[in-house]
Design goal:
It is elongated, with a radius of gyration of 20 Å. The chain is of the alpha+beta class. The protein has a domain of 74 residues: Arc Repressor Mutant, subunit A. It has a three-stranded antiparallel β-sheet.
Length: 114
């Protein structure tokens, strides 16, 4: 057919793909990592934490949600190492775990806004 470009699989190409393909366990971990971003509430929490470290009460106030709902989602985010916390007296403050998280959010938004 005219106008179509076909790529023919060669041994060289197959080897290149095999070399670059992460191990199955890493692919599973990556899939789990991206699943966390599949929940709008968790994305809202991450966006709040882009601006400032906050306690559960403040996050719940900003988002108009219950503290228990926020706590549940923070637990998931913490298990995936997306947020970290620190204690100050009786209050626990949450923040993004590292700059990778803000990069992922920003690149995701850039992609959907194109």
């Amino acid at each position: 057919m005219e106008g179509n470009t076909y790529i023919y699989l060669t041994e060289e190409l197959i080897e290149k793909i095999d070399e670059k393909m992460p191990p199955e366990e890493e692919m599973q971990d990556l899939a789990e990592f991206f699943k966390v971003f599949g929940d709008p509430t968790r994305l809202k929490i991450l966006n709040v934490l882009l601006c400032s470290e906050m306690c559960v009460y403040d996050i719940a106030s900003v988002l108009g949600m219950s503290q228990s709902a926020i706590s549940h989602q923070l637990r998931v985010l913490k298990q995936m190492d997306l947020v970290k916390n620190r204690r100050e007296g009786k209050t626990i403050f949450y923040a993004l775990a590292d700059t990778h998280i803000s990069t992922i959010l920003s690149q995701g938004l850039d992609h959907i806004e194109e």
